[in-house]
Each structure stands twice: as structure tokens, then as C-alpha cells.
Amino acid sequence: MHFETKLKPCYNLIDLTPLVDVIFLMLIFFLVSSDTLPLKSLSILHPEISRDEPARLCQIPIIMDKDHVIYVGSKKEIVDLSSVGEALSKVISQMPTTPNKPTVVLSLDKRVEYDAFLKIFSEVIKVTPHVRLAFKTPETPKTISE
After folding, report:
1. 59-133 sits in which CATH class?
2. Whole-model pTM?
3. Do residues 104 and 131 touch, judged by C-beta distance below 8 A?
4. Domain map (residue ranges) of the chain
């Protein structure tokens, strides 16, 4: 069966498909064969800090475990709830003077009840308004590699 078309072939258009194929092949060749810049050759200038300069960030940890035992400071001095403010004031007074005010990092076990959190938080706020809560973000589930 023969179909007739009224369209005439046009021979003055250039087919660019082979040209695009060649360009992509050359691009892939040059990407694979070229050397990437190794990280060792990066020149990074780190800032220098003199030893006399005070610390820019001061943190005082306060930790409460599941048994309601409270640890204050980096030496983890054990105190009861009523004396948290006094112990925190003592730790702050022993710190060297810095331009930045110390931040209290409040880290509580997730099994601590909310009322215990509020009690220790109110005791800390009485001493300093600079409080930060420490928490752990939920981890993404790990996939098993075969």
C-alpha cells in the first residue's frame, strides 16, 4: 500500500543529533580523564589567637540524671535541688572574667519529670538568664548493607 503525502522533504536543515552525541562523549571523556584538585593543595589561613586572650564562650554544665542527682560545673559537683543556685553562683564567681557572660547548659535525662525540670530551671534562672537546653536530635534509621 502506498500513501501519498503533500509534504516535500527539506534538505537544507542540518541534523544536530550526531553533533550533540559527539559533544557529550567528549565532555564525559574530559571529566573522567581530568585530575580533580586534591584537598591537600587548598591554602586555608586559620586565625591566630594569642594565649592572653580570654575565652570567647563560657559554658557551665548542669546535669540531672534519671535518679534526680544534679551535677554542677565541669567538675560535676553533686548538689541537691535547693542548693543549685548557690553552687551555680560559686562556679560563676570562680570563672575568669570574660567579656561574654557564661551560659548555663542544662542537660536533663529524658526520663526526668516535667515538674523537676521546672524546679531546676527556675533555680538556674534566678542566678543567670543565659540558659541553653541540651538535647539530642532523633537519629535517622540506619540501613543494613548487604
Report:
1. alpha beta
2. 0.54
3. yes
4. 59-133
